[in-house]
Design a protein that fits this description.
4 helices; 10 strands; alpha+beta; Jelly Rolls; elongated; 434 Repressor (Amino-terminal Domain); 2 domains
């Protein structure tokens, strides 16, 4: 099924007519008609607004029903600082609006400062050794170790030398 048809089906399932939906998006009825009939492709910004208004992950408009998602090497968005490089393998909304998956690398030292937020996290230590500070406790995490925790508890992470890890965040 094409993107426009998926948008139309999602809009109709919410009981929205085209005029009301176009008004919510700040576009003309004609533009929405062209998008829904696949006469034009929406910009990334417009598609993002459409997904938000329809309360759908953006990827829902692209994926087929095979339930298969492949992220090709080198295609993930990257956030980088002096202390850490984070590849956003699956930003929230790609497979689910409440799940994100990242691959992190650090040269060492504290790379995630003390913080807390709603949800749960799972981290797998691929390479190196880190010190995980959780509440008042400290845990040593080594290659091959996996940690799952309630992220509403204050936590921070320091690496003893270079380290690589995979992180999955489950938002509440």
């Amino acid at each position: 099924m094409k993107v426009g048809n998926k948008i139309r089906e999602a809009r109709k399932s919410l009981g929205l007519n085209m005029q009301e939906f176009a008004r919510r998006l700040g576009i003309s009825y004609q533009t929405l008609y062209r998008v829904e009939t696949d006469k034009i492709s929406p910009s990334v910004i417009l598609l993002s607004d459409i997904a938000h208004q329809l309360n759908q992950p953006l990827v829902n408009f692209f994926k087929d029903d095979s339930r298969l998602t492949i992220v090709r090497a080198g295609t993930a968005a990257t956030v980088e600082s002096e202390k850490m490089k984070l590849d956003l393998l699956l930003p929230k909304g790609v497979i689910d609006p409440k799940i994100s998956v990242s691959l992190g690398r650090t040269p060492g030292g504290e790379f995630i400062s003390d913080h807390s937020h709603q949800g749960f996290e799972l981290a797998y230590q691929i390479q190196g050794r880190t010190l995980f500070h959780y509440g008042k406790d400290e845990w040593e995490i080594n290659e091959g170790d996996l940690i799952y925790f309630d992220s509403s508890v204050k936590h921070s992470v320091s690496a003893v030398g270079p380290a690589t890890f995979l992180s999955i965040y489950f938002m509440e």
